[in-house]
Amino acid sequence: MDALAAAGAARTSRLSAINLHHFHGAAARVPPRATAFGVRQPHFMAEILASWRPAAGQDADGAAAHRRWADTTAELSPHALPGGYPNLM
Questions:
Q1: Which residue, 40, 67, 74, 78, has fewest beta-carbon neighbours within 10 Å?
Q2: Taking a C-beta distance cutoff of 8 angstroms, is the pair 35, 41 a contact?
Q3: Calpha distance 48→69 (Å, rounded)
Q4: Residue 39 burial (CB < 10 Å; 0-12/13-18/19+)?
């Protein structure tokens, strides 16, 4: 929770967000080999979205600051499960 709160407080744009998706219920009861998606245990997925409106005359460095913010959310990595969601990549 501390890493999520710190990442949210450090956003470089009010358009950026961290969305949490709760994976549970029937989807978590399907056997892993029954579908193409193998992680079937209850968990939360953090979706990191760096979004901004380019300012007039903004160069690549301006966009890079927002991308760096998304990269700094790596503090969540030790809590991550293996794999990922292809639809969000």
A1: 78
A2: no
A3: 10
A4: middle
Domain that holds residue 56: 2-88
Encoding tokens for residue 62?
């301006």
Domain of 69: which CATH number?
3.40.462.20
How far is Cα of residue 74 from the mean position of the Cα atoms in its chain?
10
- In total, how many domains does the chain have? 1
DSSP 8-state symbol, 44:
E
* 58 has a pLDDT exceeding 80: no
pTM of the complete model? 0.74
Measured distance CA(85)–CA(89) in Å, rounded: 7
Structural contact between residues 65 and 16, judged by C-beta atoms closer than 8 angstroms:
no
Rounded Cα distance, 52 and 32, in Å: 37
